[in-house]
Amino acid sequence: MTGPTIAVLGATGNVGEALLARLAASPLGQGEVAAYASRATRRETVDFGGRTLHVRTLAEAADSGASLVFCALPPGLAQRTVPSFTARGALVIDVGNSCAGLFAGPLCLGDVRPIDEAAVARAGGLRTPGALGWMLTTVLAPLLPLGAWGVTGLANLPVTAHGRLATEEFSEQVVASFNSKDPPRRRFPEGIAFDTLPEDVDAGEWSDRERSAAAEVSELLGVNPGRIGVQVCTQPVFSGMTAALHIRGVDDAEAAETALREAPGLATAARMRSLRPRKVMTKAPVYFGGVRADPAGDGIHLWLAADNLAGAGAAVPILLAERLLNAGVTTEVDA
User: Is 254 exposed, middle or buried (0-12, 13-18, 19+ CB in 10 A)?
Assistant: First the structure.
């Protein structure tokens, strides 16, 4: 594979760092790679497989001449930045679906929804699901042929899902608590150290994060989004997410476990105790376990654990980019 010229936007964030780590081990990393971040960043360099990359401003990215762009920016910045790259013919990977509704690139997820090369060429790139959408889609896809029609449950996100500044504040809150000092409360006004935060919504409402995950599952699998009702909370851990799910429509727990074991993007462990955030850190699959028939005969229950950064943040977008370039996909602007 001939290495393209690559720009990583948001390189100093949690997802950006994970992307660079995975990119350094990919054939894509053989090309020229440049790191960009907003002026608000406090870091001047990032690591890239043992090499040091100077972090440039987003304003400089527009003149980079990059042919492949990984956008790991927050939604507001991403939505203002991505159009300038697609307009001049770069292939853009919108990591985490920050440009949903504003970028026509198809939503893709490895073997679950293969790349529509023509749609990618027309739009100038593709979108990848957020961490929760990735986890739910990956586990639900192999169960659809068994009759699965809906899922409810609770997903526990790590602090890294809220961005770099949130991660730093969490660390500061932990230290302040041990030292009997007032902790900073910029990103988490109610605190997060040694606590659990549900999504802050009005009674009867679903949060934007919860609705977005349901919409991604619907787009990827064709499932009615009204049948995806997974609540979200944030746990005081740095990385790694878990979920306890109730999947309806599947009658045979043994057949479900067999289908999950054979499905791409999934893995399991010999012991349920291994399926926790710290044990799955840096690993790309979604891990499942504890598959049990519902006591009332209403589907199955199971437990999931995954690294949101290594999986949805890095492995998914880089695998798709590799497949795009191997297939010789270019944008219609280039063509």
Answer: exposed
DSSP H helical segments within 106-241, as ranges? 117-123, 131-140, 164-178, 208-221
214 and 290 co-located in one domain: yes
Which DSSP helix (H) or strand (E) runs through 84?
A: helix 75-87
Residues 6+ apart with CB under 8 A from 8: 16, 19, 20, 23, 33, 34, 35, 36, 69, 70, 72
CATH number at residue 108: 3.40.50.720
Measure the CA angle with vertex 133, ends 131 and 136; round to 5°: 105
Contacts 24+ apart (CB under 8 A), 283-286: 283/307, 283/310, 283/311, 284/310, 284/311, 284/314, 284/315, 285/311, 286/134, 286/135, 286/138, 286/139, 286/311
Is 96 a member of any domain? yes
Closest by CA position to 117, among listed 334, 332, 267: 332
Query: Are residues 123 and 20 both part of a single domain?
Result: yes
Digit-coded pLDDT (tens) for 188-235:
888 888 899 999 899 889 999 999 999 999 999 999 999 999 999 999
pLDDT in tens, 256-283: 999 999 999 999 998 888 899 999 999 9
Distance, CA of 48 to CA of 67 (rounded, Å): 19
